[in-house]
Amino acid sequence: MATSNSFFSHWSLKKFNATVLNDVWPEVSFFSLVATMVALVTKLTKHNLSVPNSLLTVLGTVLGLVISFRTSTAYERYQEGRKMWTNITIASRNIAQIIWIHVPFEREDKNKTQMTTVQSVVEKKSMVNLVQAFSVAVKHFLREEPGIYYEDLYSLICFLPRYADQKGPFTLGDMLPLWHASEEAQYPLHTAKIPQRTFSNATSNGVSRSSKETSVTAHSLRVPQAHSHKDRRPKIMPTESALADIQSHRPLRPARSPPSTSFLDYFPIFRIFAWMFRACHRRLGLENHDGPQKKKRKGPLPESNVPLEITTYLSAYLSYLLSNGWLTPALATGLNNNISSLQDTMTNLDRIGSTPLPFAYQAHLRMSLWLYLFFLPFQVVSSFGYLTIPGTAFAAFLLLGFLEIGQEIENPFGYDHNDLDLDSFCLAIQRELHEITAHTTPDPTQYVFTAWNQPFAPADRRSAEELTANAAEEYRHRDHEDIEPGMTSIRRVLLKNWRDVERITRQQV
């Protein structure tokens, strides 16, 4: 999750964890101890541990260039990931606008069956929800969180077909890949029932909420007490409360599942002891075979790419619109291009996340840097003396820090503090899609020829209602009676608009 970009803003533990201090301090401490040993032995004993520094400049320059290349390559992947998410946002807007505005509300299919306005709105809003579900599914896909049973995803796609034949049989073998890949023996889908709508805890506006959500909302809207310092912070309503309230046949996993922070995350130097303990534990055969074991799936299960499944349904909807003649070929081409853009973007994001730098390159670079920092005190102790200790510590912090930064932002789709904030991207898409569907797409004549509109300002500040009050009279500017009425007068006004705007705006520069 990305933190604030301002270095001098309010510091917090989250911002401190976003630095690489926790990652490099063990190595910096080790090389500082080596420098301390070299300086003390050289200064306090008769042994001189200094060596010629002929290779110091050459090797330092080479390592600096390689580390710079490593960091630049990782940052390019970070930037490319951000650009890909921008493409998802743009394509989602375009698809939603085409579906919501250009697909007719009142229509009949090729069988002359009339579709009501309510049916049409429900259909189009459901497809826009699928567009929103695509970005959420890509987020979980990039974070290697398989399946569809998440609080921010399930309610958006739970209405999709679950079996090859909607009339039955409802068996495991007839389950579609989207649902089959998420099937678990503990919660079998083919035995689940359609959730029944209950209104026992309905709110004042008629929307039903689960007891858990009602309690959370009530807690979120609680008025803070004046005497409580902790309650002065505004309560944040969970984002899942803005989604549909659909009961699943199995518990839903949270929208965010970041790994828990442990002692080893702050003191990574002790990881070697944990590794040695596990190795000895396995070697001695001390595993608890009698303990509870995780249930494994029996037999091969088809893998399901949830974002791909969603784009397949969007393409099928496009085919449905074309077969009924509800979309012009030009708009159908635009809709198809934007769906293809979603697929291309998902593939590129998968390429960024699943293609790390070769291990040999990373291992060789790190070992070369370790050797350089290890022999650095021996080469500078004769010139720096006791300043070798802080000099080596600074060099280690500088070089190792850039190396760790490159490694951290190489895959920017996780839960690290410097990763892209995918949750915010998905919420932004959700807000924009709801903003699009909030528009009523009225006839332009309902809002253009009103008193609120002054189309010819600043040269003519009359409203559109005044300009069109007498339809039989041609347009004539009140200050230019000598100009021929009609389009000639309009062009004169537009030309004056250009001069006035040029003069007014250039004075502000």
From TrEMBL:
This is Bestrophin, RFP-TM, chloride channel-domain-containing protein. It is a multi-pass membrane protein. The chain crosses the membrane at residues 24-42, 54-72, 370-403. Its main location: membrane. It comes from Favolaschia claudopus. The keyword Transport applies. GO terms for molecular function: chloride channel activity. Residues 200-218 have a biased composition (Polar residues). PANTHER family: UPF0187 PROTEIN YNEE (PTHR33281), VOLTAGE-DEPENDENT ANION CHANNEL-FORMING PROTEIN YNEE (PTHR33281:SF19). Residues 200-233 are annotated as: Disordered. Pfam families: Bestrophin_2. The keyword Membrane applies. InterPro entries: YneE/VCCN1/2-like (IPR044669). It comes from the Eukaryota. It is found in: Cell membrane. GO terms for cellular component: plasma membrane. Keywords: Cell membrane, Ion transport, Membrane, Transmembrane, Transmembrane helix, Transport.
